[in-house]
Amino acid sequence: MGMKIGFILGCIILAPAGNLLLKHGMMQVGDFSTNSGSLMSFALKTFTRPEILIGMVLYIGSFVMWLGLLSMMDISIVYPVFVSAAFVIVTAVSIFLFHESVNTLRIIGIAVVVAGITLVSISGGHK
Q1: pLDDT tens, 66-103?
Q2: What is the rounded average pLDDT for all residues in the chain?
């Protein structure tokens, strides 16, 4: 059970962290349509950003842990828990890091997600 929890927490931490770093890096690169030049120059500018490279490594680490989880747990249990938790983390951090706005409807939606995580996690489903 300890390894499963470690892998779940690893996925829940690494995937959002990787995505947040990718977003930060792309904010530095800028929108493809506003960058003058070719796809090759855009790719070069993108893949030389440290945030992009570190974000990719974290995301790959999450993927490896995800494969381990798939070998140990029912996907119908672990996928909703992972995706929902990652959604909550990314939304919360985006508010503070990227100053994204959140309205009441979105907050209610996040509360529903948290309730769903709770229901899924207490329903069992371990191999």
Answers
A1: 999 999 998 888 888 888 888 889 999 999 999 999 89
A2: 88
pLDDT of residue 21: 97
pLDDT for 24-39, tens place per residue? 999 999 887 766 678 8
101: left (phi over 0), alpha (psi -120 to 50) or beta: beta
* In-domain check, residue 70: yes
Domain count, the chain: 1
In a domain, 74, yes or no: yes
Nearest to 78 by CA among 87, 69, 90: 69
Residue 99 resides in a domain = yes
Element (H, E) at 50: helix 50-72
Domain that holds residue 18: 2-122
21 lies in some domain:
yes
Q: How many CB atoms lie within 10 A of CB 25?
A: 20
Using CA atoms, how far apart are residues 55 and 53, in angstroms rounded to an integer? 5
Which value, in Å, is the radius of gyration of the alpha carbons in the chain?
17
Q: Give phi and psi for 124, each to the nearest 5.
A: 95, -140
